[in-house]
Amino acid sequence: MDTYLETERLALRRFTAEDADLLIELDSDPAVMRYLTGGSPTPPEAVRERDLPRILAGYEKWDGDLGLFAAQEKDGGAFIGWFILRPEPEGPLDEVELGYRLRQAAWGKGYATEGSRALLGKAFTELGVRMVWAATMSVNHGSRNIMEKLEMTLADTIPTPSDMEMIEGSEHGGVRYEITKEQWRQQ
Asked: Matching Gene3D superfamilies, A to Z (predicted)?
């Protein structure tokens, strides 16, 4: 396994072309997809033909430093989901998005906070990142709580994208949280 980052309980690695089934399973859980698609699964062919090729291309684009990373428990190696640390498609490399999508079995165990905290550390100490942001729906209190645990600051409200208007709570829009390198250092 080509480890990108380790925490006390997690190992993050780059996805490979053989990982489509892991992503398909994750995206087929209605609870996992609740605030993304209203619970609809991502079609397996979309994962294989669109999503996974984009993930792999991202490693080339950003020299393996940024992208979407598979998360596994160090004890037993179970796949628990993924974390993301990457810029907007044409955005500056010193301003990156932090995100995560975890299997239900991994919820409530502190993995999202643990993995995100380690990624913030890597971003600010090794990758030359100036600012990290994260966004979610206003009604996604679980993700918002994690952003607040990371001491990210609520920076803005954002409109709901048109392809997400069918999701419960979409009328409340979304939120964007941010943390700068300087704010992170002061923690």
From this structure: 3.40.630.30
Q: Are 80 and 91 in contact (CB under 8 A)?
A: no
Q: Give the predicted TM-score (pTM) of the model.
A: 0.95
Distance (Å, whole) CA 19 – CA 72: 12
Determine the Cα–Cα distance for residues 40 and 153; give it in Å rounded to an integer: 30
- Which single residue is written with the structure tokens 């033909």? 49
Token representation of residue 33 = 């997809």
The answer to whether 120 and 99 are in contact (CB under 8 A) is no
pLDDT in tens, the chain (187 residues): 689 999 999 999 999 999 999 999 999 999 999 999 999 999 999 999 999 999 999 999 999 999 999 999 999 999 999 999 999 988 999 999 999 999 999 999 999 999 999 999 999 999 999 999 999 999 999 999 999 999 999 999 999 988 888 899 999 999 999 999 999 999 9
Q: Which of 119, 122, 113, 186 is nearest to 147 (CA)?
A: 113
Which of 83, 167, 92 has the alpha carbon at shortest distance from 127? 92
